[in-house]
């Protein structure tokens, strides 16, 4: 069962899905709550379930900065903070961990339109951490690493992006997710536009590119797509959320054929956001869905039975 929530008083959060994190910053064996707020980064410490004292604030004067990526970039055994300040020609920012907190900000001569994705052990699985981003001027995908100094990113590798025109320029913001949906060992892509009542399936190929998209009927007004290990056999399952139809459903790929139309989850409230996670460590994901009931937001948990039918559990 779920424990009662713990409430903390934080400043106004920055917009985005990467404004919260939980990690052991100082290596004392206890986890801290990290909250990226408009004033900077707030760090909350806890004694069991009780906040200890006031949060520590590391000020960040760039109103547009975002991101909570952590990696040991100076080799001292402690994670350092990497984030972006979009719109600047030195948009990659780092703050090194110094004994009891983060030091001053360093900026690096790299401009990115996107967020930064971390490869903790580099591209080859060993060595210093690397980062992947979209370079602002060329719009090319770039792999780079940063030093503890204000140096430009080094050892940059650049790829031309593989571009697929899936939706019209006037469409609303699309959703997408990646996973091996057909069980062939290659990552596939599923995308959806809120203006269409369908999903687009791009099958992954051994060469690293994708097939032309195939359309399958689905909800109208899709606002979220999430992949999860929902079934014991076959590829990954797909959770589809429609904010317009106020529905959430699950579908999967039929080998060699098509995607089924989503089967509704038994939900009376309006779905807002969804994730999949294996909370009970049985090898299969549960569906965790946040829904709005009038003025409250509720967390629902759905699990599948042996026949693949989902029901809500406490």
TrEMBL record:
Query: InterPro entries of this UniProt entry?
Result: Integrin_alpha_N
Mind telling me which SUPFAM superfamilies this protein's record contains?
Answer: Integrin alpha N-terminal domain (SSF69318)
What is this protein's name? VCBS repeat-containing protein
